[in-house]
């Protein structure tokens, strides 16, 4: 967790350097912060107690990861300028930093050319990618798997594009046979492949989806909002590695620096492999774009005002932790993945041992997201009893300061006969997103609390 003293010391030095830019101007009014402001801030701090302790490794629930201290410091620094990256009028330096930061993302995907920009998050980034898909093939359908983020069907509806949901297989990956028969019907313009699905972190077989392009004409959009940075890590399975190695052939990619890129919220990114799609963004603005003939980011983005501070924070974090395979940034992701594999191993050992209390899914984690179901050791599990027990463990673990998540997941993600007589439908599972590098070192305290919470939840 952040050492505030260190953060504020570094920030103060950088702030005085930044203030030199305006030191020659006559002094201007700046609202003072007085005792009332202090008391309001104190009240806000107290209100903020009503949150889970997201930054602590015992928070191992949803996709929530604290920004790196340098991102926090750089964001705060930029806030004293409050640049707006819509146009160069509003953020010259921060626009240049955004262009550099997005180019670093493109290089990570091995793209020698690209068009792209930051967005407010993964939803808007995906909206822009599917909007371009719709511009290129008006009225034709978008297809994504039932494990893809729900945003794709909603976005398609906003864009007035038909949307088709494809089934996923027992590992949560897009069902390739179903995809091929859909493509053969010729209605699909764009397939969304998800590299790192939201619920279980499954990785669609992008390499095999690409193979289908030898037979059918379609566009591939990769939603790597969650998983994109895993392209840097060394401890993927061969199947996932092949999928990530195919990324450079995608037509568009979404990645969220505010998920695994150590950024504060408000930082997604969309990248296009063919820069000429910029023609669809072309518009004139009667208010902006006069200050320079250089590209204004608003000319290649659907959102107008965007936080220049996000670009400054991302740029600074990339300088400290470059996107190098095997480097410190990649090691952080590898560590979270190792933690997930270890938690899964312990769940699977419990599930196949005497007096099992857990049910392990068919496949180990593909990235760093673990899920499992709960059972009473002495009774055959049903989806209903398992779901109720998962809820009790979730609540009890929180009382022991271990924060997990719940997810309703298809029964077919578990080995056949896990729930005797049930092959379809869903079961409420416990889910843990092990996003923090520290999770590996904390695996024993996490396991010990899970074990205790489960024992207590099974008590009559
Ligand atoms: C794979 C995927 N795509 C898109 C999104 C939506 O991103 P955001 O919440 O940043 O809008 C998420 C969010 O969890 C996601 O996991």
Q: How would you describe the overall organization of this protein?
A:
The protein is α/β, with parallel strands linked by helices. The chain has 2 domains: about 80-285 and about 295-320, Type I PLP-dependent aspartate aminotransferase-like (Major domain) (Aspartate Aminotransferase, domain 2, 3-Layer(aba) Sandwich); about 330-455, Aspartate Aminotransferase, domain 1, CATH 3.90.1150. About 40% of the residues lie in helices and about 10% in strands. It has 13 helices and 11 strands. It has helices at about 5-20, 35-45, 70-80, 90-110, 120-135, 150-160, 175-185, 205-210, 240-245, 310-320, 330-350, 385-400, 445-460; strands at about 115-120, 140-145, 165, 190-195, 220-225, 250-255, 270, 360, 370-375, 405-410, 425-435. The strands form 2 sheets. The protein has a 7-stranded mixed beta sheet with strand order 1-7-6-5-4-2-3, sandwiched between helices. Strand 2 (about 140-145), helix 6 (about 150-160) and strand 3 (about 165) form a beta-alpha-beta unit. Helix 4 (about 90-110) crosses helix 10, helix 5 (about 120-135) crosses helix 6 and helix 12 (about 385-400) packs across helix 13. The longest helix is centred in the C-terminal third of the chain and has 25 residues, at about 330-350. The radius of gyration is 24 Å and the shape is globular.
């Amino acid at each position: 967790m952040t050492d505030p003293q260190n953060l504020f010391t570094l920030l103060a030095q950088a702030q005085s350097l930044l203030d030199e830019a305006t030191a020659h101007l006559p002094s201007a009014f700046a609202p003072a912060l007085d005792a009332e402001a202090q008391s309001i801030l104190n009240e806000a701090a107290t209100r903020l107690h009503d949150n889970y302790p997201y930054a602590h490794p015992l928070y191992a629930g949803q996709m929530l990861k604290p920004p790196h201290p340098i991102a926090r410091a750089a964001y705060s620094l930029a806030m004293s300028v409050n640049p707006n990256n819509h146009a160069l009028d509003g953020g010259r330096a921060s626009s240049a930093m955004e262009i550099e930061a997005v180019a670093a993302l493109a290089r990570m995907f091995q793209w020698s050319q690209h068009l792209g920009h930051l967005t407010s998050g993964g939803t808007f980034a995906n909206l822009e990618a599917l909007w371009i898909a719709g511009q290129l093939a008006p009225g034709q359908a978008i297809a994504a798997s039932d494990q893809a983020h729900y945003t794709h069907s909603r976005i398609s509806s906003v864009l007035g594009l038909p949307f088709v949901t494809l089934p996923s297989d027992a590992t949560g990956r897009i069902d390739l046979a179903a995809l091929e028969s859909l493509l053969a019907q010729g209605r699909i313009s764009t397939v969304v492949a998800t590299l790192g699905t939201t619920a279980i972190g499954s990785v669609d077989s992008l390499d095999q989806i690409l193979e289908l392009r030898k037979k059918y004409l379609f566009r591939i959009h990769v939603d790597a909002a969650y998983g994109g940075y895993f392209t840097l890590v060394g401890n993927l399975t061969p199947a996932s590695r092949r999928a990530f190695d195919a990324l450079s052939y995608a037509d568009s990619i979404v990645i969220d620096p505010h998920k695994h890129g150590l950024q504060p919220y408000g930082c997604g990114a969309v990248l296009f492999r063919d820069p000429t799609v910029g023609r669809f963004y072309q518009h004139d603005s009667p208010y902006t774009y006069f200050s320079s003939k250089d590209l204004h980011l608003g000319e290649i983005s659907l959102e107008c005002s965007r936080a220049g501070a996000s670009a400054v924070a991302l740029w600074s974090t990339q300088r400290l932790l470059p996107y190098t395979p095997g480097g410190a940034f990649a090691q952080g992701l590898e560590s979270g993945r190792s933690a997930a594999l270890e938690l899964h191993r312990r769940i699977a050992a419990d599930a196949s041992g005497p007096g099992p209390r857990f049910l392990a899914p068919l496949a180990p984690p593909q990235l760093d997201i673990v899920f499992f179901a709960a059972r009473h050791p002495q009774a055959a599990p049903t989806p209903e009893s398992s779901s109720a027990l998962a809820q009790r463990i979730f609540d009890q673990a929180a009382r022991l300061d271990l924060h997990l998540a719940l997810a309703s997941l298809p029964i077919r993600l578990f080995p056949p006969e896990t729930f005797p007589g049930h092959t379809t439908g869903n079961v409420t599972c416990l889910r843990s997103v092990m996003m923090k590098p520290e999770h590996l070192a904390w695996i024993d305290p996490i396991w010990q609390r899970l074990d205790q919470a489960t024992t207590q939840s099974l008590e009559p």
